[in-house]
Amino acid sequence: MRVTGTGHASMRIDTAAGSILCDPWVNPAYFASWFPFPDNSLLDWETLGQVDYLYVSHLHRDHFDAAHLKRYVSKDATVLLPEFPTSEMEDELRELGFTKFLRAPNEQVVELDGGLKIMIQALTSPTDGPIGDSSLWVEYDGVRLLNQNDARPTDLSVFTELGHVHAHMLQFSGAIWYPMVYELPQSAKTAFGKQKRERQFDRTWRYIADLKADHVFPIAGPPCFLDDALWQFNDIHGDEGNIFPDQSVFLSEYAKVGGTNGIVLLPGSVAEVTTGGATTTHPVPVAEYFANKAAHLEEMRERKRGVIEAEKASWRHPEVDVLAGMKRRIEPLLEESIYLAKGVGGPVRFDLVGYDGESVESIVVDFPGKEVRPYADEKVRYRFRTDRALIEHLLHIGEVDWVNSLFLSCRFSAARIGQYNEFVYAFFKCLSTERLQYAEGWYDEHERSTDAEDITLDDWVVQRRCPHLKADLTRFGIVEGDQLTCQLHGWKFDLPSGRCLTSVGHKIRAHRATAETPTP
């Protein structure tokens, strides 16, 4: 099995029975804030796009690059389609000209022509990408590969049961806006960032230990930030709280925990994977490339400056009445929302900075009141500050996912009162009736379900599944004193009270092992 690195989470997998192109991303994403690093725009995409199969893991725009898919990927390719709860991915791919689809049943092995086998695991909670994320397992002639990209399954046993894996591709770096955009003292940002960076690596080590693959390939991150306003987010400034460590940092940190089987793929690197090992060739020496990272970024910044400016020029839509547009888009969804509106539990404020850089219009999304209205000088749970032009553009294009557009751009600042509230972000991912109805149904199902199985961790008896996303706490749960941490996403719980310390809701069932079992 030959694996050609094509940048970020993208790769081309070649076997004698066919080729698969995964997640090709080249063009800037999220309001031109994210670019692939190392740069992959100079690869021979005309050739790379001539494949038998296309696999797109999910609709994040650093995985689903519509312009690139339309121009460079063969429309004769069969799309390996995850079993997602909505038809959005298929609909978008059809609009780009793709007509052949293999709808892979979730977690079922499908044998393609020539003995090539694939299996796709789809994750479908409202917090998994925009209505879904997925992983691809591939087998040919006894060689097995898992492309986990940035999916976060609670359990990898569905893959290990299919046989020993030889190549494991997985995310290791940040793909979020926290804590950089929060209005906090720099010391607090550094502390929170360092904690998140450590959690990212801890989660990666856990996945690697669970799968026990012969070779580990760090992919799906980090992006680079070439706009002058975002330049500080690149991990070149000696900031121990930066959440975007690169592949060379991964190798260094992996070595500290005994990892010796890591392989970095630059754009154009080729790994020949067999049951007996892997040999890799690179277009340039890997260590030397990352040693000169700052210089490469500077060169990219100058080369892409025109692209960024052209994007910025397209965002302003002065004809858009933002308050009226938000009311039309959001108020009908507030009326339909039960679980998400209750979960948010208060007003959320948007401070929109005008074209002059000084004037501010404040608009409130009032979840209890089910309306969008001008700010009335009340206390709010969350506050977001961003350029008016960005909201104008979202309304102009009818964007249904403000999280995986505005928020991932990092072109905003935020403040909140109290804990992180996942319902805020779940709602702003679901600005369409189809998405909202799915999210409401998912939360309804999980609210009504009971998790009756208990386990013992240290001196505590707790429910086996994390209340957040049902991770198995026998594997991901760590107890320190009276506090439990689920290492899959870093969520914390106070065991004596059961209260979630990370977000609103999500109470855990727990009691000391020496105490009597509470009456339900």
Automatic annotation (TrEMBL):
Entry keyword annotation includes Iron: yes
Keywords, A to Z? Answer: 2Fe-2S, Iron, Iron-sulfur, Metal-binding
* PROSITE patterns from the UniProt entry: RIESKE (PS51296)
Where, by residue number, does the polypeptide cross the bilayer?
Answer: none
Superkingdom field:
Bacteria
**The keyword Metal-binding appears for this protein:** yes
The record, for InterPro entries, names: RibonucZ/Hydroxyglut_hydro, Rieske_2Fe-2S, Rieske_2Fe-2S_sf, SCP2_Rv3818
Q: Name one Pfam family in it.
A: SCP2_Rv3818
Question: Which residue range or ranges hold the Rieske domain?
Answer: 461-520
Q: Which Gene3D superfamilies match?
A: Ribonuclease Z/Hydroxyacylglutathione hydrolase-like, Rieske [2Fe-2S] iron-sulphur domain
Give the protein name, as stated in the record: Rieske 2Fe-2S domain-containing protein
